[in-house]
């Protein structure tokens, strides 16, 4: 641990975090809930079901409120067909709750069939058959999505990508890795690290989410400020179209200007245009030196000044710039006693990470950045560490923030891009609007990418708060020309609000594209587009 002598009170961490990967996946309670739900024993964990048009009471089936599309009904002959294609073990007809319930436990579908193909050809055969039969399908990765995109809304067949989980190659010379879509992000990263590379994407759900799910949502996470988003890192994809055609857009090069860049259509299209089965990822080298600072600040104005200073002074080694407000931090600390924040009592906290190739140089830079910030009175206190265990502990605090908010409460979650100068105002505005109806209104997120996670939690789903926050939050964002989804996507929960971020001509082109790729609308219906 290093910090400028005399300037900062260094606080030692009293406890080590013992639960490995705790912050990377569902909380223990949630994991249990989801595991139980998978066994079909805990249907009551579904607290509420939200249709944006009209919220439903607890435990109501979503299909009660959504007009089922004109799809065929699954029958025994279909199941027998799939059993023959995939083998009985890979065709599930029982204990499907875990596949039917979304991570936030807001949506529960009613699928009667989960298919687990083992290779691209099997995915192709499934879709060809479903397209001919007009059976609707929802592609599912790790089911960690936060907008209800990965679960059935009515009785769609769940196409689970779990078995396509191999890292096919990692080339340490070119930095290019070829991986199947169902590979868990953390496993993929571990394989890359074996040869000194790393996956340029990191997010709190990494122990559960799939790389194919990440690509399909164009997931952001905590390294976008350094490596950009997946449109830059994904060099190629293989996708199976609704009619079963395999579209091979794999590439081993950064540069390829041979016509339309079709791979981009599958990055962020949330399983509505095709099923991603394989991809090529450009992986950077693991940084030799990583330092993390966790600092306390008094005002959002100081946060902005510190961000500008970080860009100016840390420049090429800046690899993360995250913001957590006091309520978000305190909620996590209250819920997870094993977390130990090095500082407390500030309205704002920033987690700033540097990654570089020269430890001494980087330490000097980050220490200087902090001492200058302290001299100017912008940074009030904090800790900085380059020791891997401590770095992980600090990251754990950030990763547990979203889970703290849903541990015991219902949470309305918003994931918006806003101009930096207006970044935090919405949190105060929302506090005012919700008053005592909400237990916590807080903001955190990827400040370095202008991406705010605004969260409003309450004991349970509450119609009154719901009306106070939606569509207000989308109107507000739209007025500032922000995005109503910075990284989580549109899925089911936000589909009625797409027009706040896309104009009618753009939406019509999206519809036309959907029609061209999937004329029968079998792929992930009820999502993204109304
Ligand atoms: P799923 O949830 O299974 O699916 C998401 C969408 O992609 C669905 O529409 C689904 O149909 C589609 N899909 C999945 N696999 C495929 C495929 N192979 N082909 C076609 N379509 C497919 N997101 C961020 O962007 N940044 C974050 O920092 C972040 N942090 C998170 C932290 C926590 C604790 C949690 C629970 C979630 C977080 N998320 C974050 C949201 C989520 O993890 C990401 O959206 C992730 O990319 C979803 O991956 P998945 O495999 O779980 O996909
Ligand atoms: C995060 O940055 O923690 C995720 O996007 C999840 C969330 O918004 O809660
Ligand atoms: Zn995020």
Report on this model:
By secondary structure, the chain is an alpha+beta fold. The chain folds into 3 domains: about 60-160, Uridine Diphospho-n-acetylenolpyruvylglucosamine Reductase, domain 2 (2-Layer Sandwich); about 165-280, Uridine Diphospho-n-acetylenolpyruvylglucosamine Reductase, domain 3 (2-Layer Sandwich); about 290-480, Alpha-Beta Plaits (2-Layer Sandwich), CATH 3.30.70.2190. It is built from 17 helices and 16 strands. The protein has helices at about 30-40, 75-85, 95-100, 120-135, 185-195, 210-215, 225, 230-235, 265, 300-315, 325-335, 360-375, 390-405, 425-435, 465-470, 470-480, 505-515, and strands at about 90, 115, 135-140, 155-160, 165-170, 175-180, 235-240, 245-250, 275-280, 290-295, 320-325, 350-355, 380-385, 410-415, 440-445, 450-460. The strands form 3 sheets. The protein has a 7-stranded antiparallel sheet, with helices on both faces. Strands 5-6-9-7-8 form a 5-stranded antiparallel sheet. Strands 1-2-4-3 form a 4-stranded mixed sheet. Strand 5 and strand 6 form a beta hairpin. Helix 10 runs antiparallel to helix 12 (about 360-375) and helix 11 crosses helix 13 (about 390-405). The protein is globular. The model is unreliable at about 1-60 (pLDDT under 50). Flavin-adenine dinucleotide binds near residues 220 and 271.
